[in-house]
Design a protein that fits this description.
32% of the residues lie in helices and 25% in strands. With 415 residues, it is an alpha/beta fold. It is globular. The chain starts with a strand and ends with a helix. 52% of the residues are buried.
Length: 415
Amino acid sequence: MTAVEIPGSKSITARALFLAAAAEGVTTLRRPLSSDDTEGFAQGLDTLGYRIERTARSWRVEGRPAGPAAPSAEVYCRDGATTARFLPALATTGHGTYRFDASPQMRRRPVAPLTRALRELGVDLRHEEAEGHHPLTVVADGVRGGELTLDAGQSSQYLTALLLLGPLTRDGLRITVTRLVSAPYIGITLAMMRSFGVEVKRERTPVGEVFEVPSGGYRAVDYPIEPDASTASYFFAAAALAGREVTVPGLGRDALQGDLRFVDVLRRMGARVDIGSDRTTVAGDGTLGGITVNMRDISDTMPTLAAIAPFATGPVRIEDVHNTRVKECDRLEACADNLRAMGVTVATGDDWIEIRPGVPRPVEITTHSDHRIVMSFAVTSLRTPGITFDDPGCVRKTFPGFHEAFAGLRAAWGV
């Protein structure tokens, strides 16, 4: 058995930074993820006037329930979707003018459902170039709150940003959601809000799912960050593909992250899975069965499955993953194109991909500067030596030490 220490969750770290910045008092975040995305989020908070003290193992955040201390700021969100979507929502709680911009990659990704909702709440928000995209400017004067209808079928982050904002409004929020993708991420948001002192009411109605968010703010806490389940998927997949066993400590049956459900996909394909109270173990014999699977709720792990699919004994069909087309790149087509370059037969539709069994040949993977494409096809390289990447360093977005950790795993397994 090989144990792998996975860095902290990107999704949880980003939410925790928002909550800590908004809370009354000083919050300590234990084992936060240190990566380009989370460093960018922390730098954005610093630019807005929040105080953060960082050490290797913990970050201390001094909360400001009244909003940013800076009367004006220029915030660069880098490639971070959570930074680019959560921080403008946080800025609306203050009093000042705040401009947000992002990398060319992030500029291409939409924010329209969120900014439209903020405008409906009375926020003075302007897109400078393409409507619904960065750069944008918020002229903040607090938020009254009220009722909203939101389509979160493209990204659950729009809903998360509004849920996190709700307790900071004067009257709270009532949000009716007509469509929702990646629903487990909303479970993470609600559980974390509960830890910071806010209970959100959630109910299904004929017109959609309704979230009642009370006003009243957050309280500071000491908050541990669990390992990143999306990152763990590469190591779990590696064990199943290579016929080895891997254990990830810190991810157990009470984990907040829905992406841990990727191990259920591996189980259906023939891997042995054991989820304990504080760790998860996956073991395989190198044989994987074909599968048809709906990955709507765990779509960040779609590339992981696509990358090992050629080695299955039957076709692998992944359905309901249209939202992967508006991530760091069009992940569905990026996976398909790279697999085809390797000689694998692939078919795609608007929201699905089907991969036939084959013997992939080594190629240089076109990464589109997407960390998940790199980490996924690193798993493929266990059975296809010679794979290289046009931008291997883009893993710094979520796991700067990925290549070293994966090389260590290969060395331990002798593959």
